[in-house]
Write a structure and sequence with these properties.
Distance between the termini: 37 Å
Largest sheet: none
Order of helices and strands: HHHHH
Number of strands: 0
Shape: globular
Number of helices: 5
Amino acid sequence: MTEETDLTTRMNRARFRAWHRGTREADYMFGGYFDRYHEEWDEAGLAWFEALLDHDDVDVMAWALGTAQVPDAFAGPQMEAMRKLDYVKI
């Protein structure tokens, strides 16, 4: 498997995980964020999102909404983009 194929497989898996969180609110937040930003990600950006997907939706949503402190591992430009919520289309 080539590196590009591996990245494509990981992107497809991340897309599925983003849009199948278990609640409509989380689906819109994670899935909408993925749809808006994934084309800009390199391997590091995808790894950040994959790690985010491993956390509880309630925690990530609190970070994005500003009701809880963002852990250092997730602070930075990608979380700032997530906090804008301009990618949520309802």
